[in-house]
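User: Hey, quick favor. My workstation is busy. Could you predict this chain's structure for me?
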Amino acid sequence: MPSARCMSAYAPNIEDIKKLRSASQAPMGDVKKALVASEGDFDAAYEWLRKKGIATATKKAGRVAAEGLVGLFVDSDKKRGAIVEMNSETDFVARNEQFQALLADITRTVHADSAFIGNYDTAALNVLSLNDRNVGDFIPELIGRVGENLVLQRATTVAVTRGVVAQYVHRVASASLNLGQAGALVGLEVSKELSEAERVELEAVGKKLAMHIVAAKPRFLNRESVPADRVAAERAFVLEQVAEQAKSKPANVVEKMVDGRMNKFFGEVTLIDQQHLVEEGSPKVSVVLDKAAAKLGTTISLTAFQRYEIGEEQL
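Assistant: No problem, here it is.
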């Protein structure tokens, strides 16, 4: 009697398939094969697709069942900006004037919290003071009025000393309140005090970069900000990919192959190494900033950025 082959009992469900397909943009059939091969382990399934050349090093952010809006606010001197996401269950509520007004008020409140720069945790965000009350107190009140669940999801501030904080709002829902379905902030620091004309010019550079950030979805600022374990895992992956070719090539050639693929990885995940999608010819972001710096007679440092999109799963 022939021996029975050990078969996995796992069968991918529709939610797993949708999540992996959204993240990888791979064909449905390959997504199912990857999930079966990994027995439902999302990260392992994604790596399976990568090894087959079907997915890239950067997961596309998944979607969760959420509507809502992103609010942005940058002060008039362009030294500090805030970005906030608030979710609703339906787009209908996201278009509600009360929802939009509260999000705009919260965004300005976050901006005014000058003692803090960076990503807020939920607890700190909800106890910020708005009209002598905690921000979090306003959410259940609005839930009662609109009749569906609302979530104050996340908030970030970006600040500079002498440069500019630039912004871009995508798929605008309210131009007057600066709300949309996606948005980005970016901080550009300089080494000298700028004239008003120079500041306006730098802000234009920053706005284009913020537009690029919304489109390109970088994960990290630069190579130094990529976690060491992520770099090590990618290098191990690359070594596995070139293992067969490495058998017949000198060590220095193999090292160059690995370095080339690692450079490609950094070009996908780090903002400074990405090809600028908004500039003609798509030069590297670093090249665009160097050119702008030379024109302004200063150095330009890319200090921070943040990109939000409604309902985006935070990878």
